[in-house]
Design goal:
Blueprint: E1 2-7, E2 20-23, E3 27-31, H1 40-44, E4 48-50, H2 56-59, H3 61-69, E5 77-82, H4 83-92, E6 113-118, E7 124-126, E8 129-135, E9 143-148, E10 153-156, H5 164-170, E11 176-182, H6 190-196, H7 201-208, E12 216-220, H8 227-238, E13 244-245, E14 251-253
Parallel strand pairs: 3-4, 4-5, 5-6, 10-11, 11-12, 12-13
Antiparallel strand pairs: 1-2, 1-14, 2-3, 7-8, 8-9, 9-10
Helix pairs in contact: 7-8
Length: about 250
């Protein structure tokens, strides 16, 4: 099982892409702008999208994905998310005003898009690949995900701030190999991080102090223009955990 990073930035600029990851060839974890770099053939093979939350940097490519390849496929693309997130997508994205409702196109019996609700702690098995929603603490309803091949697990926190319930779950994972955690702001913007329910380096260090497992740690969601500063501050605050910056096209084998 392989997870390829299509986008991991907190914004766009040049070659920066927002959050999206491709599991093998057919499962997306979030669908930010990085999905747009895939070929038509690759897009047409995506069967599932697991969404952490409804913010545009994580869902912006879903409408274009469905519109581009829906007609090529013999089954709908399934969007998996907690029910509050699905309701936001229904009301505010696929609502015939911002974008057509592809759960009704070409008709309700054979749509290009379908929704599937997930729940915290309830594992979804996708052909032997197990994805489990984890607690997140953000300004909208949100989750992270554990991806488990059986041999190893990767945890992606999604967008989150201080989050004790997450660590309670993560510290129970015996086969954890990788942890991808956000740090959206530098330390001078801590007030903004707190207000928007993200992390800054000093807060990241406090969160990692709750982490009782050994795993490779990668930092995602860095803001363009502050990448070097934020990573420098992360090394100063949390260098003992040897965190590294997540990069586009990085591949994790599980």
């Amino acid at each position: 099982m392989k997870l390829r990073i299509l986008g991991c930035s907190g914004g766009i600029s040049g070659d920066l892409r927002t959050t999206s990851m491709l599991l093998d060839h057919d499962v997306l974890i979030d669908a930010g702008t990085g999905v747009g770099d895939l070929s038509i053939d690759a897009l047409s093979r995506i069967d599932h999208v697991f969404v952490t939350h409804s913010h545009l940097d994580h869902v912006t490519s879903i409408p274009f994905l469905v519109d581009t390849v829906g007609w090529m496929r013999n089954q709908p693309i399934t969007v998996h998310a907690i029910e509050p997130t699905l309701e936001i997508l229904r009301q505010h994205l696929f609502n015939w005003k911002l974008w057509p409702d592809f759960t009704q196109i070409p008709d309700a019996q054979k749509p290009y898009l379908r929704y599937a609700a997930v729940a915290l702690g309830k594992t979804v098995d996708v052909n032997g690949r197990k994805l489990t929603p984890l607690p997140a603490n953000h300004v909208v309803p949100a989750v992270g995900y554990r991806i488990d091949s059986g041999r190893a697990s990767l945890v992606f926190t999604g967008d989150t701030t201080t989050n004790d319930p997450l660590w309670q779950e993560v510290n129970r994972i015996d086969n954890l190999r990788f942890l991808i955690i956000e740090t959206a702001f530098c330390n001078r913007e801590k007030n903004l991080a707190v207000a928007s329910k993200h992390l800054c380096p000093s807060m990241l260090a406090e969160e990692l102090a709750k982490f009782k497992r050994k795993a490779e740690i990668y930092i995602t969601h860095l803001k363009p223009g502050e990448v070097e500063l934020t990573m420098q501050e992360i090394q100063e605050c949390a260098g003992a955990y040897q965190p590294r910056m997540l990069e586009n096209n990085q591949v994790f084998e599980l």
